[in-house]
Amino acid sequence: MTYILLIAFVILLIIIAIWDIRTMEISNVAVGIVLGIGVLAAFVQRDLLLWERLVGLICVSLPLLLITMAVPNAFGGGDIKLMAAAGFYLGFRLTLLAFFLSILGGGIYGIWLLLTKKKDKKEHFAFGPFLCAGMIVAVFLGEWLIGWYMNQMGF
User: Fold this and answer.
1) What is the pTM assigned to this prediction?
2) Helix count and strand count (H, E) for the chain
3) What is the pLDDT of residues 130-139, one digit of tens each?
4) How would you write 17-73 as a 3-class SS string?
């Protein structure tokens, strides 16, 4: 069952990324399914405690919401809801890593768009695909990346 949930999570993230590229929107239905996968995972996967899932639900989504309240349109509502739902599936460690990877990838892409003059600094681009890519990398390589980083820092 763990592998079925993992495959469903990854396939759904790929669909969300493609849809966001095309429409600049993340469907509430898709976010609800991601949350449903997280709830099922809480019953099947005992490697994460409930508090780790709950912290994962808010550790990125709440700051994104607060940033968006302070700077309107900084992030879309779909991005915020997706990070909350996926955070419940991933737990806080992988959610934080996924967001870091998303910011890194989205930042590089944004710089490229500006340098090539494809967009100016007032235009938006879909950030959901970077969130989805960060989560997919985190799900498969996250524990290794965290371990590598901790080792480099001497922990």
Assistant:
1) 0.92
2) 6, 0
3) 999 999 999 9
4) HHHHHHHCCCCHHHHHHHHHHHHHHHHHCCCCCHHHHHHHHHCCHHHHHHHHHHCCC
